[in-house]
Structure prediction request, 1053 residues.
Amino acid sequence: MLPKGPYNPQEEEPKILIFWLDNKFYKPEYDPDKDKVVSFEEMLKDKRPTFCIINPPPNAYGRPHLGNVSGYAYQDLLLRYYRMKGYKVYGQPGKDHAGIQGEIVVLREYFRPQGKFKANMTRDEFYRETYEYFMKIKEQAKKDEQRIGLSSDFDRDVFTLDPEIVDIVLDTFIKLYRDGYVYKGVRIVNWCPSCQTALADIDTEPKERSTDFVYIKYPLIPEDANIFELKLPYADLDSLQKNKKLNIDLSLLGNQKNKIKINDFVILEASEPEYHKMRLPSLVANIKEDKVELKPLDSSFWQAKYPLLIGTSSKFKQGLFKSQLEDLGLKIITVDKPLEIREGETSLIENAKAKALAYSKAYPNALVIANDGGAEIPYLGKKWNKVLTKRLVGGDKASYKERAQALLELMKDVPKDKRTVYWEGAYAVALNGEILFAKSYKEEPGIITTKLHPGIEKSTGDWLGYIWYYPQLEKYSFELTDSDKVKLNWAIIQFKKDLLAFLFEKGIINYVTVATTRPETMLGDTAVVVNPDDIRYQALIGRKVLLPLVWRPIPIITDPIVDKNLGTGALKLTPAHAYEDYQIMLNWNKNTKKDPDAQIDYINVIDKQAKIVGPTGKYFGLSTTEAKEQVVKDLQALKLVSKIETKKQFVQVCERCKTVIEPQMSSQWFIDVSQIKKPAIEVVEKGEIKIHPKNMTKVYLDWMYNLRDWPISRSLWWGYRFPVWYKGKVEEKIDENGKVITYIDGTPVKDFKEAEEKGLAKISKKSPGKGWIQSDYVFDTWFSSGQWPFATLMKFKLFDKFYPTQVMETGYDILKWWVSRMVMLGLYRTGKIPFEHVYLHGLIKSFDGQKMSKSKGNVVYPHELIEKYGADVLRLFYIVGNKAGANYQITHDKLEGNKRFLNKLWNASKFVLFNIEEVKDKLPQLKPQELKLSADDKKMVKEVDKIAERVKKYIESFKFGIIAVDLRQHFWEIFCDWYLEIVKPRLYTKDKNGNPIEYDKDDRLAAQWTLYYALQKYLKILHPYIPFITERIWQEMPKGKGDHRSLMFSRWE
RNA sequence: GGGCAGGUAGCUCAGCUGGUUAGAGCACUCGGUUUACAUCCGAGAGGUCACAGGUUCGAGUCCUGUCCUGCCCACCA
Prediction:
């Protein structure tokens, strides 16, 4: 009998848990038919179809949080469902060492109280102690998993750093290396100059500071100028600077000497004995027979020479933008009396053309932009606009009069409220008396809103365009066109989106101004980057600028990531010391693979002590702070600083010591994913792996399509150490060209392959012998956890039996990080998909509706809720009404409601059990057709069978949360409120006062059987949702065919 | 800036490939019951399905645009 009173989960749930654990129901070796644990071999031979879920391993050092536990509810629901369906079920639990996070936590919470730090420990000591500590502490996480009812095989609970797992993971690395998918390359890393270590992004934190934003002018090298580079004795350079003149021998130019002409550039480079380099740009002033006279350049050389702009708009006339233009060294010609060619038989576009031609005649060297506009035409909505277009035969070519006529006619047919008005205008651009292009535009319905036409922003794919002048807005903008039809040799300057001016290239733009918060890194600049759609710089793409101070020609390249509106829209590229610059370099080099000359490189100018190194001349050896001051000072002396602003900026600082991170180049290990990602994309595209919810498939595929080579090495102690050995000490140094060079035992090596060939390095799991030193790097956590599905199953020799697994259930937030890697590495290592379905659950919002976070103080721990409500209530909260990928909020109402449901189930069961007590044992053997079932009984049976069928359908399509609402309601309303109430009179054998009453025995038995049948069915379909209470009630229920002493193994049908 | 999701009752959310009168839980109002139910049952009220167009015999559902919210990614040179 069930105990009296309301259901008490704190009392009942632990008993059930012990019942399950003691009987080892969770083990795959448990055979329900024999009701015992059979041998491993016997289990392997079992013919039942398999169903396997690998439980995502939580961090070993902490207790699983509300999110982890939600996962277990879903995983366990599936495990239990398929177990009851007769599958051979296996759940693989595990605990994660959690890489960097694990290391931080153990240092803080375990070692620091003992006065131990990485500085006063050996690596082995640290690893051993941490391992032991984790082994101990991970038991708590395991208990939490069991408490929620997760029916996985806890005898096979495994740690990610388990030696056998490590072995399998390292084998994968070695296989990747042998197959040529692993390489060691130089890459930018977060370097903490104080801790002297590379840091993962997660170990850095943003800090706001205010800093100087320096605008530096990089002189543009004229297109037709040759550039020669010459190495000279230092003394010669010195004399050049002093005397402003130098004669050098033509023969120094070698076979290029015939090319040189006056006004060419010669960049002179001289080295001091101690490695400092001095570079100075000079102009060829005079060529004698065997000598060249060189003149050093000063900044005045780059000044602009002549104006070339004419605008016809009122803004020019008013002298607006004057200062900006003059800042560029331009003079502006304004036209006092603009031509008025209007009306008559001329169309807008003809007007514009006529204007442009007239002006260009007057100013033969000017590029003329002429506009004409102001025609008002009605806007009629979509439908009417079509009519309008049709009636306006001739379109642009129609004259004003024709147009006005047609519009007036049309207006009559248009409903009044739709008669709004838009503007029409035209543009023409002329040069040397010739029209370059012309176009009319129609835009802005009605009273013009404050917005520009959306097409303007969208169509910035080309550089040629049309000016649009919005009279009512007093604004200019432009529209771009197909540029391959018209090729012009000029650029367009745009000020703050408002003014557009077309400028001749030659002699006008003679600087490219870049803005930077880190002027000292310009010493390592290798390019200037502009947005490919930025019309201002179109004519400059592919040209070169001369990097001041170090006087190195660097190219102007493009990348869409560059923000046109930030700073000057031109970005100085220092790939060695800015993460984003580094990415731009990679992209650029990838896109210009076929053209080796276009490739750009890095120059590392800051070393691990934050000192200036590399080819930096007089700045060599300065600290970054000193260098910054000096560089700005020197640039100002050259008049190459146009302005300095103060800017608020976020910098990354070291999480531990708060030192500003100094990004720089360092040698790291990579996986070349270009090949191995292909099958991982294919299996998802083909639907061999299905992702729930479906829309996450796109997220996965987008991520995979764009996946770049994966850096897998980390400078940590806690993790899988690389199976890489060096014969001697490994050092990294920056050479005089700013390149990172690795030295093994003093010998410089180009790359790892070379080191291996020279016998200085080896890939091996064990030490190759005395004197060999193992690499300091450990693997990125995702490299190991990406192998979790097959590594765990291989360890337990269950691979053949259970791989591929059926479901991977995890939070959608790690789809990209974890799921993608499991698919990729699983396919690579085993040739098979790791799982058939990916079910992604949503995140849980706290009681206040916000995302849980420690800083907000709204974190809810699952064990708190379990203590108060029990595991079943929490499981219902996770499941009921929720769907894949959707976030949901925890509320007390939901928890209370679930508690009430359990109580209802408990009481209804008590009622049923009490009323079937004396016929309990024979009920399962009775056949419905032999019973005197009433219409209500039959209806009840039908109803419960129906809901069971629906639940089955929904669970198998991963919609168990949605159907749970119906199931709960079904039990409550159909079984409790309806059937139980109407069946009562048929069950009573006594009246209110306890006196016996007459009753029909057969009818009563029919009712009793129906009660029994419905309840056992409900218990079964409810079991995957609320295993504890259903199992507890099951213990009191009579058992029939297909029933097991544990509800867990009783068959659904 | 790019991407994804969402906007439905007072609150938290369902509503699959378009199809009667748009649903559930909680909260609310009224009535009843206490031989399973520190309760439960019955009844009721409450919605321009964000907004504007469109497709259709028919739109919460499909298309276009707009607004708002949340999340993810990137970036702040």
About this structure: Confidence is low (pLDDT under 50) at residues 299-346, 373-407, 413-424, 441-509 of chain A. The two ends of chain A are 26 Å apart (CA to CA).
